Amino acid sequence: MNENQSEKCSELSTTSHIILRSPDSAGQMIQQANSDDQLIALWLHGRPRNTQRGYRSEIDRLFEFVDKPLRSVKLMDLQAFADDLGQSLKPSSVHRAMSAVKSLLAFGHRLGYLQFDVGRALKLPGFRDELSERIISEAEVLRIISLEPNPRNRAILLTFYAGGFRVSEICALKWRHLQERDSTGQITVFAKGEKTRSVLMPKSVWDTLISQRGDASPDAPVFRSRKKGHLCESAVWRVVKKATKRAGIPKDVSCHWFRHCHGSHALDRGAPIHLVQATLGHSSVATTGRYLHARPSDSSGNYLPIG
Predict the structure, then answer these.
(1) 192 catalytic, yes or no?
(2) Active-site residue among 56, 152, 241, 256?
(3) Is 282 annotated as catalytic?
(4) Number of domains in the chain
(5) Digits of tens for pLDDT over the chain (307 positions)?
(6) Would you say residue 306 lies in a domain?
(7) Catalytic residue of the set 166, 177, 197, 262
């Protein structure tokens, strides 16, 4: 339903149901949802699992704070909620939480469930971009990988770095997602935003991966748990944390840092930005360009008559 069609929706029903008038057949009534819970389910439907989990957590936190249904939430409630979050969270976390709230309220208004989109008037807090702090050096990444004694875990770290994958993509890999390509191979993942992308692996990484297969079937997980199933994300996070500590790197390195390092290091070494964009699966080259701004190779200050 576009915005013009939305404006033709009937007034809210006096009951607790959303009742919208169909733009195609006058008089026909369509019930969309009958509670906040149903609205949230509609809003989350089709989103990636991790996104659903994160968004639901933010909305649960809103309800815990305001203790009222969405139709009763006012702008001052949202402002008070944002201020409260700011007491314990970083500005970037407050921004993420309030973005989720604004998205839900806008969705509810578009469907006619909410008479007003009170979130539209809420100004999101600005925050400092911390991307540069999450990019460690090439030497540090290679030290993390080389000091990992477990072959499976070393293969995980190599695949993170070589392919710029997300942790959810790593955990979901099956052997049928790996295809040979001449002397090397590629990995195909079903990525964030319901996009499929294929990433060509360096030969050394491909050889390391294939050495882990043994007689595993095409539908077997590439990275298996002790119970022979797929590794869970928390287990992979522990692998990264332990490997970072073993390498003596005093930073809170996460799985996603390997993705940041892939983008930054590849650009530093002259990889075309559109190639890095395709490898990482960014929808916009502007997103990939953040790595150039996070770690600039030059500065206009170098051209000034200083020192």
Answers:
(1) yes
(2) 256
(3) yes
(4) 2
(5) 433 433 334 333 333 344 444 444 444 445 577 899 999 999 999 887 888 999 999 999 999 999 999 999 999 999 999 999 999 988 888 999 999 999 999 999 998 899 999 999 998 877 676 778 888 999 999 999 999 999 999 999 999 999 999 999 999 999 999 999 988 999 999 877 678 999 999 999 999 999 999 999 999 999 999 888 999 999 999 999 999 999 999 999 999 999 999 999 999 999 999 999 999 998 889 889 888 888 777 777 677 777 5
(6) no
(7) 166
Same domain, 270 and 176: yes
d(CA 290, CA 280): 13
Count of CB atoms situated within 10 Å of the CB of 221:
17
Q: How many CB atoms are located within 10 Å of the residue 158 CB?
A: 20
CA–CA separation, 291 vs 19, rounded Å? Answer: 47
The yes-or-no answer on residue 262 being catalytic is no
Tell me the one-letter amino acid at 53: R
Q: At 187, which CATH number?
A: 1.10.443.10
170 and 55 fall within a common domain: no
Regarding whether 239 and 259 lie in a shared domain, the answer is: yes
**One domain for residues 219 and 283:** yes
Q: Which domain holds residue 231?
A: 132-294
The region, left, alpha or beta by phi > 0 then psi within -120 to 50, assigned to residue 88 is alpha
Encoded tokens for 156: 């995980």
Same-domain pairing of 45 and 80: yes
Active site residue 259: yes
Global pTM value: 0.71
- Of 102, 259, 262, 265, the catalytic one is 259
**Set 197, 230, 265, 282: catalytic member:** 282
Please tell me which residue in 95, 134, 192, 242 is annotated as part of the active site.
192
Q: Are 52 and 86 in the same domain?
A: yes
Query: 101 and 167: one domain?
Result: no
